[in-house]
Amino acid sequence: MLFCISAIYGDEPRKEGHVLVGQATAAMKKAAAYFHDNVAVEGGYPYLCSADLSSRWGENMQLDQAVMVQPPGTPAVGIALLDAYKATNEKEFLEWATDAADALVNGQLKSGGWDQVIYFTDPKSNRMGAYRNRKGGKWNNSSLDDNKSQSALLFLIQIDEVLEQKNQTIHEAVSFGLESLLAAQFPNGGFPQVWNQKAENLPVLKASYPDFDWKTEGRIKNYWDHYTLNDGLAGDVVAVLAEAYRVYRDESFLNAMKKHGDFLLLAQMPTPQPAWCQQYNAQMQPMWARKFEPPAIASSESQDVMEALIQIAASTKDQRYLTPIPQAMQFFREKCLIGDEQFARFYELQSNKPLFMNRNYELTYDDSDVPTHYGWKVKSKLDQIEKHYQQVRDGKSIASGKSKVSEKEVARILEAMDSQGRWVKVVETEKLSGTKLKRGEKYLSSQDFINNTKKLALFVKGAKP
What we know:
This protein has helices at 15-39, 74-88, 91-105, 148-162, 168-183, 233-248, 251-267, 299-316, 325-335, 382-393, 407-416, 446-463, and strands at 48-50, 56-57, 62-63, 66-68, 117-119, 142-143, 194-195, 227-228, 279-280, 297-298, 342-344, 346-347, 354-357, 363-364, 377-379, 424-426, 442-445.
């Protein structure tokens, strides 16, 4: 059934608009209730779930009594539920979001952060967490890779702010997590990919090119203990510190943000490549991480660093953090484009040749036989970065993302929902990546739930007089 759609204007929305707002609110509640009651485990969420609820999946793993932290897992679902609550003031959304927060509290490690997965029963491996608030195993490595600990902290900060009656357990978890994050920050302001203790006291140095043959030397097994910018770490950490400062007004979070900005200034490589790398050793030289992540200029991480510096400048009102950006943008525009607004993921140090690996994980300049599990090319975000740079340079606020959702889009989301409150997808390829679900099988996606809930919440919020 198609919905009757019309625009909403002024202080007196037309009848059809009122109807659509009610339908959107009812749809969010129905979808969230189904997801919470049928897909969640102990309040937490997987990436994917078969439509018959017989199996749940994370990243290349089946989950039994376990849930995902890494987005689009538990924190990301929790934030979508909070968005629904803020838009509607319906208490059920806050209750379901609180259950997601409780799952994270029960998955917080003694080191203060989170790993990719929270296990509620022993997975019969060495990855059972050394959980702070309940019995667990020995795994105590808090991770900043792929937005794990950052997403958990961001959600817990936001729900701690929203709860009218302070939930002491949640508040203690976020306080301990933030304290542990600050303790993991190196003296130069950088962060490791993983931490389980206070940061080592290392000298503060400027980035430089390796003084050894990086192709064959300098590999370190525990690369995760060193300075890293991999997979958006800078932007995600800055988002947490900015939100913590906004909510708690504690200068330590603002100071940590400035300190990380200072690290990003130090980490910019000298000419001829004024950009950033994925990871650096104790001498602030680019280093290997995994076997397909060589010392190199990294386009994805460089773009993330530029956005992080813009956010730091906006939060601290210190335009010093904008100074590396014009040169870096010029470098990428003039020296790095390899097609229609595209970059290679890696550029060889000093020569700046696009750098790839073949299926045998051998370095090459040829992109015809790369491993398929990794993104070897990156879309340019320079136009967006330049827009944000100019806004902050001129003393303006950074323009937010999507500010409204059309009635047509809302109607599409509502029509795609089934009678149980689900957005069901069908596997179209031979096998759904990371699962054993095969072509033709139906499944539910946390990412779809998040996307649709956030859009409906944004529509409802925008429709209020």
